[in-house]
Write a structure and sequence with these properties.
The protein has eight helices and 26 strands. The protein is α+β, with helices and mostly antiparallel strands. The chain folds into two domains: 84 residues, SH3 type barrels (Roll), CATH 2.30.30; 286 residues, Fumarylacetoacetase-like, C-terminal domain (Fumarylacetoacetate hydrolase, domain 2). The longest helix is centred in the first third of the chain and has 16 residues.
Length: 398
């Protein structure tokens, strides 16, 4: 088991087996988290502690580094591991306090796609809104359903979320729609995948080739205005009810750090079409927790997701749509079969019918002004312990 000389890092969830990337500080330096500290990779590049022939590690974003591909990612990770495990480097590595560094959005979001890939989430919503019909629509078991979001409203964890306004359903058939602030503001606990290596127009990616393109994983909160969404989504799907804000964690966990978290996905019935087939399919065993104002309200398991990250990537590109460095695609709400595993308030309260009680005695159906949501997750580590993914935090402003 490799251990680090950085005080307090071993067993912290941000140990040497994790090493997530972020962009920190007023000058926006690329850094790697280790325990309660951050390795300044810009300084390590200048001091030639890591190979950086084109100076990508001195940039204010991860964009160029992500575009360089898996070989570069792996070699840099190996060099950082050596720096942090060999005590001879104690006096040469610049460490910054992680708690006070200040996180920025670590990459430029090119495109944003959000899937709908949890069987339990889709079934819950189907039962809720189509109680007299089959809960799943005919296409759901044949393809990973998704919508294309707005990249410009993807914000880093800690950014306040302004309550959106928009049109809502008329209060009676002969009345016009109502305009106003959303009163049914919701969360969606999701897992995001950040693309490093792009493709050419017309080129598709097979599920087995995910690791050639995806740089890493970041937790996501896909904030949702359910009342706005309910009025606008027919016939083209989500728009203003989703596009006002999507929060991502400030730390990107490299795929290599999640090797031990790979897990066999659920059996798919019927078998998917050939382009979605994968000889060695895998999901990720991520134990997610959702806290609302400090109260634990949900514990979804990402390993239960029906459609895998590789299948999502394959479907996203099968029509020839190109990938670009910085593309973000999210899993969709992660929910499980048990009530405490539901990853959205609309499920937890069954569309507002059953309020949840917080630790302070207050009740919630949907989010109120001032509410804070924290989504966190852990995963098995290669050394037998667990790593802690960077959390995604957001507070609602009126």
């Amino acid at each position: 088991m490799t251990k680090s000389w950085v005080p307090g890092s071993n067993g912290s969830g941000f140990g040497i087996d994790h090493l997530p990337y972020g962009v920190v500080g007023p000058d926006r330096h690329i850094g790697v988290a280790i325990g309660d500290h951050i390795v300044d990779l810009a300084a390590a590049s200048v001091d030639r502690l890591v190979d950086d022939p084109d100076g990508a590690l001195t940039d204010p974003t991860l964009d160029r580094f992500m575009a360089e591909g898996p070989d570069r990612w792996q070699s840099t990770r190996e060099q950082i591991t050596t720096l942090l495990s060999d005590e001879n480097h104690k006096d040469s590595v610049v460490l910054v306090d992680r708690g006070s560094a200040g996180l920025h959005l670590p990459w430029t979001v090119a495109d944003y796609v959000d899937f709908y890939s949890s069987l339990d989430h889709a079934t819950n919503l189907g039962r809720m809104f189509r109680p007299d019909s089959e809960p799943l629509l005919p296409n759901w078991r044949h393809l990973p359903v998704a919508y294309h979001g707005r990249a410009g409203t993807v914000y880093v964890s800690g950014t306040d979320v302004i309550r959106p306004a928009g049109q809502k359903r008329p209060q009676a058939p002969d009345q016009p729609p109502v305009f106003g602030a959303s009163s049914r503001l919701d969360i969606e606990a999701e897992v995001g995948f950040v693309v490093g290596v792009g493709t050419e127009p017309g080129e598709s990616v097979s599920p087995a080739d995910l690791a050639d393109h995806v740089f890493g994983v970041s937790l996501v909160n896909d904030w949702s205005a359910r009342d706005i969404q309910a009025w606008e989504y027919v016939p083209l799907g989500p728009f203003l009810g989703k596009s006002f804000a999507t929060s991502v964690a400030g730390w990107i966990t490299p795929l290599d750090a999640l090797r031990a978290a790979r897990t066999e996905p659920p059996t798919q019935d019927p078998p998917p079409l050939d382009y979605l087939n994968d000889k060695d399919p895998w999901g990720l065993d991520l134990a997610i927790e959702v806290h609302l104002n400090g109260t634990l309200i949900s514990q979804p398991q990402f390993g239960d997701n029906y459609w895998t990250p590789g299948q999502q990537l394959a479907h996203m590109t099968i029509n020839g749509a190109r990938l670009r460095t910085g593309d973000l695609y999210a899993s969709g709400t992660v929910s499980g079969p048990e009530e405490h595993q539901r990853g959205s308030l609309i499920e937890l309260t069954w569309n507002g019918e059953n309020p949840i009680t917080l630790d302070d005695g207050t009740e919630r159906t949907f989010l109120e002004d001032g509410d804070q949501v924290v989504i966190s997750a852990t995963a098995p580590a290669v050394d037998g312990g667990r790593i802690t993914l960077g959390p995604v935090v957001g507070r609602i402003l009126g």
